[in-house]
Each structure stands twice: as structure tokens, then as C-alpha cells.
Amino acid sequence: MREIKFRGKDAENGEWVYGDLCTLRAKDGEVTVNRLYKHEVSGLHVVISTPVDPTTVGQYTGLKDKNGVEVYEGDILSRNNAQFPMRGPVKYENGGFYFHDEESGFCQYLLPDIAKRGVLKELEVVGNIHDDAGLLNN
Questions:
Q1: Based on the structure, what is the number of domains in the chain?
Q2: CB 3.0-4.6 Å disulfide test: which of 11, 80, 106, 132 passes with 51?
């Protein structure tokens, strides 16, 4: 079973926050990333909710790149292969995570499919669309 978790940029300081659940609060539309911590002294579990910029929220794909880095929606993947270079963002569309390869004329690949074919073992996360948009061909 795939691990469901999210990330988003903290609405106050712009730092990335990673958590197990992303919620929408009906009263004001605030989006939060929630993290569960076990208090060292009491042993009680505490949920910490951090308001995040909703435009930066991305879900973990359940996959890792060639370096073992978790791949999230919004990450930019790259393959430095002189013959067949690849680079582009990870997007969630039509019920699945896709890699949009801008190097080859905007081809789309379903992430689980390229993982099965071994291509994901050649790709690495080089940034994300929020912090490193300049890495993409616009």
C-alpha cells in the first residue's frame, strides 16, 4: 500500500512542511499540512497543523528517484543523457501522476509505467516548480 502524504510551503516563512494529511477548513478555505509527533516525556501523540500556501501543496507519488529522494507532485525530474535527455515537472492529472518531459516536445509519461520500465532509476529530482521554475523550458 502506498504512503499518502503531502507537502506545502509554510504560509508564514515559506519553508517546506511535510505531513501525513492535508486538510481544507471550510470557514476560511485555509489549507494545512498536519504532522503527528510523539511527545518524548508524556508519550502522547500531538498533531501540529501548519497553514500552507495552497498553490504549493503537492502529494507524494509513492516513488523515489535514482538517489532515493521522494518524488512529489510539482517536482522537476531530469535525466542527463546526451542521446535521450529528459526534464520536466511531475503533475497529477486524470487520476494519476505524470512526468511531463519538456525535452522531447512535451511527452507525458505515467510515473508508475516509467518506474516499471526502469526509467525512473535514471531520473533525479533537480528542483520543483515553485522554487526552481527557471529549470523548465517555458
A1: 2
A2: 11
Sign of CA dihedral 94, 95, 96, 97: positive
pTM for this predicted structure: 0.87
Contacts of 100 (CB under 8 A, 6+ apart): 88, 89, 90, 91, 106, 107, 108
d(CA 124, CA 78): 5
Residue 1 belongs to a domain: no
Q: What is the pLDDT of residue 55?
A: 92
79 and 125 both lie in a single domain: yes
Position 42 confidence tier, pLDDT thresholds 50, 70, 90: confident
Query: Does residue 81 form part of some domain?
Result: yes
CA distances from 53 to 10, 17, 20 (A): 6, 10, 16
Q: How many CB atoms lie within 10 A of CB 118?
A: 8
Q: Are residues 106 and 126 in the same domain?
A: yes
Asked if the structure places residue 109 within a domain, the reply is yes
Q: What is the DSSP letter of 136?
A: S
